[in-house]
Structures are given as structure tokens and as C-alpha cells.
Amino acid sequence: MHALRLWSVRHARGLRRVYDLFSRLAPVVAPVARAIGVTRTEALLRPLERNAKGLLFDCRMCGQCVLSATGMACPMNCAKEMRNGPCGGVRANGHCEVKPDMRCVWVEATAGTKRIAPDHLAHPTPLLPAIDQRKRGSASWIQVIHGKPNPAFQPPVGERITPQAQQGPLERACRSGRFVITVEVAPPDSANPADLLARAEKFKGLVDAINITDGAGGNCHMSSVAASAILTTHGFAPVYQVACRDRNRIAIQGDILGASALGVQNILCLTGDDVSQGDHPQAKPVFDLDAVSLLHIARGMCDRGEYASGRKLLTAPDLFIGATANPFVPPFGDRIANLEKKIAAGARFIQTQFCFDLLMLEDFMRLVRERGLHQRAHFIVGVGTLGSAKALGWMAQHVPGVHVPPALLARIAAAPDQKAEAKQVCIETIQALARIEGVAGVHVMGHKNEDTLAQIISESGLREQTRLHCE
Ligand code: SF4
After folding, report:
1. Which residues does the chain have with pLDDT short of 50?
2. Among candidates 79, 68, 45, 37, which has minimal Cα distance to 273?
3. In terms of Cα–Cα distance, which of 403, 425, 259 is closest to 329?
4. How far, in Å, is the centroid of ligand 1 from the Cα of 81?
5. Which CATH class is domain 164-470?
6. What is the structure's pLDDT at 8?
7. What is the pLDDT of residue 156?
8. 384 CB under 6 A from ligand 1?
9. Domains of the chain by residue range
10. Using CA positions, which residue lies closest to atom 4 of ligand 1?
């Protein structure tokens, strides 16, 4: 089955032609389908579609077929059911974060898309909404017969500017054009807010916002919505991270509304890491949404004042919405298509995975500038440090989506004081990033390493420059 799936991607161009022909001819049989009845026609088509597409594409019968937009690779084979592009955890060999023996479905989909249209990056890619769970198991061909092959595509959202008086500190900092600094803090395994505040206090006066992770790495901590609300109450500017892994769209929208009601002004929409590497590997991952559909829903709540269902909100949230990007894993340059979707879906700032490879980041930013994405969103690049070459090497091997060049590992390993050298590398990276056109700031990360991160921010000199700039 898998071999046939790969064959289909290799022959995506021919299969797309067959699909286009079928789409043109299918409405001819619409009167017959109407005469038989839509329900009966669907029941007749279902086994045919299941067998034909099951054989060719390992089709999972989601009932909302998008093969024509995904290079003839069925996105339902993705372990996170991503419908708009790859997650950030793709392995260096192009294999899946969750199923290491399988090539990432989106690496395949990108190859298929290029076969269909070599200039695929020149065209805007359709935004696919979250799957309609009611349609699972039903035939998609019935929609083609009725001339509505892709009713599911979503329009991009436009630019939205919150009046300056209502902007939070992070949005104001991004819009000011000065270099932005954000930091990541993991909420504690504690029911005491003081444990969270002790971590946040280390960054007082040093950063523009503090990201609160949402079960990072599949590990359980205090909820990110509660931690963000606590920080807001104590005068910090949190970025409430929302992962799609643990909650469905009902729970997530309720949390977004609740966070806004509690004064939280920034959210970061992300797919979420696989549960298998966390402390609850027996948990059921949800992935009702992917990051793009979550962004689109969050923007719909803010801009149109309505839930994904279309039901109106009494008062809409007003949020500065961000997304993540990982320039350091396959399918490398083609990831820009997924990033562009995130921006079209509503992201106004982008935070990246750890940057340990400046050359790769420069390539990525060149693509960003070519497509004018830096004018539509603020790019905040992830940086960080670990205490030794061994710890860094372990992270590169075990944390999905982290890439560390061997030369950097060798430099740190050869140093007499590895911790100091790793810190120096991070400071040099920050200073180099500040010189790259389109980089709006840095996002400093490091698990339970707050003291070192605060020193790095101070020693990089950027905070001082920022202060002088603001005075
Ligand atoms: S690496 Fe991510 S996007 Fe690719 S198949 Fe696995 S879960 Fe899906």
C-alpha cells in the first residue's frame, strides 16, 4: 500500500490530469445522481471510492478530499492530520516525527505538488479548514458530481490594525521597528503562582513578552491559559501558547475567549509536539485543528466576532496573533508555502525554532524577503543555549525539529569551559541576527535555565540599545 502511495506521488501530474478530466465530466451525471437521490448515490459511490483511492493513495476517507491540492498525497496519513503543510518536527532525513519509519506525508506532498506545477510557490496555496468530522467515511466524489469539488477552501484574512491605545507591549514593540526580545518560560509543576512568578521575575525589564508554553514536549505543567492570566495580573506581557494536540476546537475557542477576558493580549498558535516523547505517552492526541486552521479561527473570533461555527460573540477578543516556523528541517525552502498560509490565515508575528545555523537562517530570510513576508509579519528568531556539547547533541538527536551543525558542536566540545562557550555562541548568534534584514527580534529559549537566559539578554547589549532607542 505504501509503495503504491509513493507511486501516486511520483505520478502526481498524470493523476491530477485524470482528476481534472473527471471533475469536468462528473457534473454530466449530476441529473442521474439527482434522480437516484443524493443519499443513495453517495452509498453507491462510497465503496468504489474507498477501494480505488485506498489502493492508490492509502486514502482514509475523510469525506473532504484535497488530493488535488496536496500533490496527490493524502494528508490524513499524517500522524497529526496536518492539512496545510508540515509540522515543525520533520526529521533531518525527511521522515515523520511520530512514525520514524515513514517519510513525512508533507515531504511527499511537496514533491507531488512540484511535479504538478514546478512553479507552485508562485501561486497562493489554498487554506484548508479544519476537517468536518461528520463527513468522515463518506464519499467526496458526490461533491465533484455536483460541481463543488473543494467547498472547504477558506479565504485569507486581511490586515487588521488594533488602535495604538489598545495594543499590548509586544505589538507596540513590533510595530515600533526596534529589536524585540521575547523569552520562553515553562509553567511550573505547581499549584502555587509564586513558583511561576519566580521564573518570570528574572526577566523583568529585559524582555517585551514572555511565552508560556502549552505542554511543551508532551509534558504536563500548569495550564498555559492560567499561567498567562497570572502573569498578566502581575504586570507581565505573556504570549499564551495554544497547541492543537490536547484540545478540540470547542475547548480551544473557549480558552481563547477566557484568556482575552483575563487580559491576555498575545497568543501563539501551534500544532504541538507528539505525545510519545512526553511524560504521558499513553495519552490520546487530539489534533482536531492544525496551526493554520487554528489561526484562521482565532482571527475569525477577533475580526468577525464569531466562533468557527458562525455563532456570534457578545464581545470579540482583540489579540495579537502569532505562529511558529521551523526553517531548519525538511522540506526546507518549500516550507515557505506553509509559512505564507499561516500569515494569510492571520499570523502577525512568527517565532522560529532554535537557530543554531545562521547560514540556513539567512537562506530562509532571503525567501521571506523575496515574498515580502517580513512586511506582513514580524519575524522573531529562536535562540538558546545548553550547558555542554553533550546536552546540545542530545537535544539535536531527541528534540523534534532541532538542528545543530556539527561544527558548532565541535567548537563547544573543544572549549575548556563548555557552558561559557555555549553562552558566547548564543550571544554571537543574537548579534548576527540583529544585522539580518527582516529579523524583528529574538526569542530566547532554554528549559529551566532562566538565570543564564537573563545573563545572555543582558550581555548581548541589545536590551541597552533598545532602552537608548526608546529614550
Ligand atoms: S512529520 Fe509532522 S507533518 Fe510530517 S507526517 Fe509526521 S506528523 Fe505529519
Report:
1. 151, 467-471
2. 79
3. 403
4. 8
5. alpha beta
6. 87
7. 66
8. no
9. 2-145, 164-470
10. 104
